[in-house]
Amino acid sequence: MPARMPNWIKKFGYGEFIHLEEKNCKACMMRGDKVFREVDKNVFDAETRKQECHISEVTTQVISTIPVLFNYWAKPKNALETSRFFNDHIAQTVSDDKKNFIGLGTVPLQDVDLAIKEMHRCVQDLKMPGLEIGTNINGKNLSEKEFFPFYEEAENIGCALFVHPWEMMGEKEMEKYWLPWLVGMPAETTRAICSMIFGGVFEKFPKLRVAFAHGGGSFPYTIGRIEHGYHVRPDLVQADNRINPRDYLGKFWVDSLVHDERAFQLLRETMTDNKICLGSDYPFPLGEHKPGELIESMKLAKEIEEKLLYKNAFDWLGMK
Fold it and tell me: Are the beta carbons of 253 and 210 closer than 8 angstroms?
């Protein structure tokens, strides 16, 4: 996120737009007049990021907007303005250091026409290989037909999509113990994958390159249950797509962030070694503090390790 942002609440006259303030020697993301989250310098300072990447032996980092800044809830024209601001900031960060950074944009998906317009700007003018989007858009699943023109255009121009959980289902019912992040996020990502499969998104747009955060959430570990539901309740599960969900394994990417060797082994068996990209969730606490450490600890064949650490990511992004 940028170190400095306009106070959009004052400018637009409504909402809970995030801005950054310094309080008690801490950098704080402010939602209105309330502290949303304390953040370290690595959230908004490129030089700090580069230093930490060097320490953890990361040579190139894909940077994207913090999901709370999607602003899908805002009026479309205001969300477009904030999206353009964040995209310009990421593009400038990349332009200043193409060796260390690759940028993803964000778009106001509450208005598909505006989202397509900003996607074109990100890809064609700002030279970004892709966008980051949320697992739902104001509660609407990614299977909704209104988003199909967006997917069609992303496929046409070769824009990769990174789906990151946000506004987790059940968040208000399980606030204690950090459960939205520990339980809600994996479920939310599974919701997005299943929605795109059952809604026919991957069927209708077979060249669309989509990656899901955090190891694909719970999906790789519950595919048996999901497939069983497909068989026993076709009246519900197959309403929009009659193809077995297991047939879509290998047709989208997930990241490697699962924090457990046995879980990662199952992830590899389920998704194949060609569809897993190194994920770090940097710079937040649930990330892998030394990105790639789990992969490297498993002493895999060099060819497989290279795929997992960087080659698969370039395939997903459509980059050499």
Answer: yes
User: Cβ(198)–Cβ(243) under 8 Å?
Assistant: no
Residue with tokens 């204690």: 176
Helix axes 219-232, 261-271, angle to 10 degrees: 50
Token pair 């960060």: residue: 93
Question: Would the pTM of this model clear 0.70, i.e. be above it?
Answer: yes
Are 174 and 271 a contacting pair, CB within 8 Å?
no
Averaged pLDDT in 10-residue chunks for the chain of 320 residues: 91 92 77 84 94 94 96 98 98 95 98 98 98 98 98 98 94 91 96 98 98 98 98 97 97 97 97 97 93 96 98 96
Structure tokens at 135: 């697992």
Whether the CB-CB separation of 310 and 303 falls below 8 Å is answered with no
Separation between Cα atoms, residue 87 and residue 96, nearest integer Å: 14
User: Cα separations (Å) of 296 from 194, 281, 308, 309?
Assistant: 30, 17, 10, 9
Q: By C-alpha distance, which of 256, 153, 134 is closest to 195? A: 134
Task: Report the residue count for the chain.
Answer: 320
Q: Are 168 and 217 in contact (CB under 8 A)?
A: no
Which fold would CATH assign to domain 135-317?
A: TIM Barrel (3.20.20)
Tokens of 100: 């260390």
Pair 93, 46: CB distance under 8 Å: yes
At residue 163, φ and ψ (nearest 5 deg) are -100, 120
Residue 280: strand, helix, or coil: coil
CB atoms within 10 A of CB 310: 16
Model pLDDT, residue 24: 65
